[in-house]
Every structure is written in C-alpha cells, then in structure tokens.
Amino acid sequence: MLDPRFRGSDIKECMENLDQIFVQAKRTVMNLAESVLPQPLVLLVSMLISIGVIAAIGPVIMMYLTWLERKVVGRIQNRIGPNRVGKFGLLQPIADGIKMLTKEDIVPEGADHILHFLSPVLVVVPALLVLGLLPWGRNMAAVDLQVGLLLFFAITSTGTLSIFLGAWGSRNKFSLLGALRAVAQLISYEIPQVFSAVVVIMHTQTISIVEIVNAQPGFNWFVFTPWGFTGLVLFYIASVAECNRTPFDLPEAESEIVAGFHTEYSGMKFALFYMAEFLQVFSLSALAAALFLGGWQGPFLPSWIWFFLKTYGLIFIMLWFRGTFPRLRVDQLMGFAWKFLLPMSMINIVVVGIWTYASPIVAWVLGILIIAISFGVLAKLNTRYHIERNRKFILAE
Amino acid sequence: MTIPLSHYLAVSAALFSIGLFGALTRRSAIIVLIGIEIMMNAANLNLIAFWRYSDGTRATGQLFTFFGITIAAAEVAVGLAIVISVYRLFQSTNVNEISDMKK
Amino acid sequence: MIAAFYLISVVLIVSAVLAVSLRNLIYCTLCASVVFISSAALFFLLKADFIGVVQILIYVGAVATLLLFAVMLTKNLVSRQYYVGQKRKWSYGIFTASAVLWVLIGSIRSQTNLAELVTADHQLSVVSLGKEMLTAFLLPFEVASLLLTAAMIGGIVIALEEKKKSS
C-alpha cells in the first residue's frame, strides 16, 4: 500500500499514514459500503460522507473561532478571556450555543416575516458551500472543480444579497444603513480581491484550487516572490474587508448604527449571521493560504496539519487587527479600495507578466522595483494632507 | 437514457414567453427589466443546449453565451441608472406615467 | 441526472412565473435570482461549468443586487409603496405570450431531426475556452470590453445627481 521508498524509516511511514488518515478512513467506509449496497447507492454514500463531514465541521470551526477570538482579544487587552466554563473556557462556545438556542426569537412588528426568516438561512448556505471547495490536505478536497477558484468567488458574492434582504425585511433604519454600507463595501472590495488572485491564475495557468496548491511543492510557495507577497497582502486586506471585520467593520459598527444589518435579529437567527461571518473568516484565510502560502504543502508534518497551521496563522493576524486598529471612515474605506488596492493589484498583474517572460534575475529586480515605486507613488497620492514635521502634540488639542 | 434536446428547447421557450409576458404586462420599469433578463436567460440556455448537442470541439456556443451575459450585465447597469434618474424626475417608475417628453 | 433536469426545470419555470407576477417588488427580485441560479444549474447539467459560474457571479452577485438597490432607491421604505397595483388587464399579455410560446413549441416539434442529436462525450477545458476567446473571438471580446466600459461610464453619468439643481 505504501510507497516502497519509505520502507526504511518508521517515522516517515507513520507520517505518511497520518497524512492520509482521513482519506484512508473514507476509503474503508466506502469499501464497506460497496460490499453491502448496490452501485448507485455507493455513489450517494460517498457524496453523503463528504457533505456530512463538511456540514459538521462548519459549526465546530465557528464555535472554536469565537472562543479563539475572545481569548486572543482578551490577551491583547490584558485580560484573560473566558475561563469559567471548562478548562481554559473550552466549553464556553457550547454554553453560548445553548444560550442562543433558548433565547426568545423576536421578529419586529412591521417586519417582512418571510424575508426576515429567509435571510439568516441564505447567509449561511454560501459560507458552508465554499468549505467544500477548499483543499484540506493531500487528496482531501471534497470537490476538485476545473473552475474551483471562480466558483469560490461566485458563491461568496451571493452573500451580499441575503444581507440586503435581511436588512430590508427588518424594516429598521439602522439595519438598512448597515446593509447599504455592507453592499457598497463588499462590491468594492470584491474587485481588488479577485484581481489579486488573478496573478496566481496567470502564473499557474489553471483555475482549479487543487491544481494551484499542487503547483507550489515543498517550499516553493508563491509568497516568496515579489508578486506573490504583494498579492497575499492585497488579497488578505480585501478578505478582511469582505468578512466585515475590524478595521473594516462599518456595516456593523456598534458605536454608530447599533449592530448594522443584524440589529433586529436575536437568538438562533443572530447566531446564524455570526456563524456565516466566522465561516467566511475561515474560508477566506484558507483560500489565501492555498493561493499564496502553498495550502497543505510543507515538509515533515501531515498535510492537513500544515493547512490548519497556515489558516489559523492568518486568522490570528485578523484577530490581531481587531485588537489593534480603529475603524475607518466611510470615505477612507472606499478610497482605500478604489484608489489604492485596485491600482496596486493591477500593477501586480503587470509584474507577474514580466515574471513569466523575463529571466529570473531581471524579473526579481524589475518586480521589486516596480512594486516599490508604485507603492510609494500610490501612498504619496493617497495622503490627503501633509503631516507637519516639527508639530508638537499637545494633550487635548 | 438521456434528455432529448427538444426538452431543453421547450424549457427555454417557456422561459422566453414568461419573460415576454412580464415585459408586456407589468407597469413597474424594474419588472420590465427583470422580464427582459429572463428572456436573455432563455436565449443563453438555448445556445448552451445547442452547444452541448453539437460535436462540441469548438467553444462557439459557450462564448456566445459569455458575450450574451456580458451584454445583459451592461444593459442592466444602464437600464437601472435610467430607472433611477427617471424616478428622480417623475417620482414614479410606472412606465405608463412616464409619457411626457419634458418636465 | 434526468430527475435533476426536470426538477430544476420546474423550479425555473415556477420562479420565473412568480418573478413577473408577484406584487411585491422585493419578492419579484428574489424570484428572479432563483431563476438565475436554476438556469446556472442547467448550465452545470449541460457540462458548461465556466458559463454556469459566470452566470452566478454576474447575475446573482451583481444583477440581482443592482435590482434590489434600484427597488430600494425608487420606493419609499416606510409607506410600503413598493407594492405595485394589479389594476391592469393581463389578457393581452397572456395572449401574446402564449401565441409566442405556441409558435416556438410548434417550431421545435416540427424539427424531427432534433431527436437524432446526442450529446458528445466531451469536456471543454477552461484553457481551450480562453484560447479560443483570445484568438478566434478576439474582436467580439474587445468590443464587449468596450461596451462594458461605455456602460459603466454611461451608468454613472445617467444616475449622477445634478448638483446645480439642488443648490
């Protein structure tokens, strides 16, 4: 069963087994199913296993992301975070879940009941669907589509619609303000996000996420090239905005518009919005890891451990942002997307074009030069006012 | 057993008629636009169905659909901009009320 | 596969009927997006993956959102004015639409050689699609990009509020 090269060393063999443990588990179940069930049902069982695992792993990821967020932000703010329920507060998400389930479900008097109900359901569906497209490890993508990356963006773009419907159905001005901000923000940041992913498509000449990961074996991750690094930073910033997280959390800015588009939601419906947000955080971080950080590629450790390490590393940076940055203004938000991210990602496309056709040294030098110069120029152009050099900052100025 | 081509064409024809019905009878300019979009969708479905049932070595059918979708997107963008500016002028999107040349 | 086709077709036609006949404009838009998604599903059934994805990306991601925006900008939120009255005679529309349907179905039925056509067992890769787009279809491609630019500028110019009037 194993590759004969690894016969000598036990550790490698063990790692190899661990690497494929989930694939083997599924194969065992499938063999069992094949011996019992007729052929058409076997296919159904195979599908159901994948769907079941994805559907089960989504809520678990969400629950422990809430725990992680509270712990990390707590540490940043010099607190301990949840520590009462279970060891290190590990059972806190379950307690929260029970609380959410037993809460009263309030529907406002004037609300459009159908839309109000439909919106949280519709917002979770795309968030769960994209999990099926991710490469969780070697041979561990639920579906390997030829157009996987494009489908990922297509599915995430439908989330806008449900946010809008929910806010409209709530019949509340804060909801509507939040939804307007959300839609404007999501549409604006989708463009630099897709543009910064285009560089990877250009380099690998494929749109399949699995193929893109396969193109970065060992340590040949795209982040170690000038365009890859720029692409990762741009993609990551755009992803933070796509998830409506600090510093781009204007759609749900607590201090301005109560809670934005989910103001009128309570109980389990609110939890569904929350779940969609956290699943999006996870899937976009995982996609960033797959596109630029080599996905599950890495030495020694099993592939799925690498995948989770990279993904949670990126998620940690997102939480760090939340603990560090203040919120942007609306004009700053839009200006940042249209005047900085978009031109920068276009320049990045030019750089990857040069990379494809020039010799390595020329490509490196030219790439770094072009990116550095354009970054400097764009930063200069985007600075509205000049900060005085010798200004003395006086308290309460 | 596979689905015959005529079934796809029948679905597409039904979709086209529904879109036509919407575009003809409804008074709201937005629904008229939705009707036109549904008609374009029917045409795209036709193109893809014929592509699938051809020898399929060339991508002509798919690319025609691609351009069709592009044109539909452009049409919606301009159409809705017109709807909004008309609404600003007449305080209504009812296509029957918008009959004055100047206001 | 066959069951999937008929199921999707039924969803497609029912939601299309609802999209053009409901009174509440928001529900109309919602049903329209169901139409778009289910026709994307038919594209997937026909093995046109790329077009199906483009359909979702553009129709559901952009067009449906734009439609919702337009509904919201043109109707008053508080007074429930987004209901459109039903005082109109629908008989002319139904007559015209069913006449068109009759002609279309008749022409499909008259083509007896349609039944002989079978699906070839081929899968067009995205790479060859892109190559074709930039070689044989280069001119339409460029014209389409020009059209999109023109539509974008046109849309902004038309919807732009005239500042002189307001001041």
Shape of chain B: elongated
Indicate the mean pLDDT of chain B: 82
Order of helices and strands of chain C: HHHHHHH
Number of folding domains of chain B? 1
Largest sheet of chain C: none
- Write the element-wise H/E pattern of chain B from the N-terminal end onward: HHH
Which features would summarize this protein structure in a list?
heterotrimer; B: 103 residues; mainly alpha; Helix Hairpins; elongated; C: 167 residues; Four Helix Bundle (Hemerythrin (Met), subunit A); 2 domains; 73% helix
List the helices and strands and how they pair.
The complex is a heterotrimer of chains A (397), B (103) and C (167).
Chain A: H1 10-19, H2 21-36, H3 39-76, H4 92-102, H5 113-129, H6 148-157, H7 159-170, H8 173-204, H9 209-214, H10 226-242, H11 254-257, H12 267-292, H13 303-324, H14 330-357, H15 360-382
Helix pairs in contact in A: 2-3, 3-4, 3-12, 3-13, 4-12, 5-7, 5-12, 7-8, 8-10, 8-14, 10-12, 10-14, 12-13, 14-15
Chain B: H1 5-25, H2 29-52, H3 60-90
Helix pairs in contact in B: 1-2, 2-3
Chain C: H1 2-21, H2 25-45, H3 49-74, H4 91-110, H5 126-134, H6 138-159, H7 163-166
How is this structure best described in words?
The complex is a heterotrimer of chains A (397), B (103) and C (167). Helices cover 69% and strands 0% of the residues of chain A. Chain A has 15 helices and no strands. By secondary structure, chain A is mainly alpha-helical. Chain A has one domain (103-382). Chain B is an all-alpha fold and 103 residues long. Chain B has one domain (5-90): Orthogonal Bundle (Helix Hairpins), CATH 1.10.287. The radius of gyration of chain C is 21 Å and the shape is globular. Chains in contact: A-C, B-C.
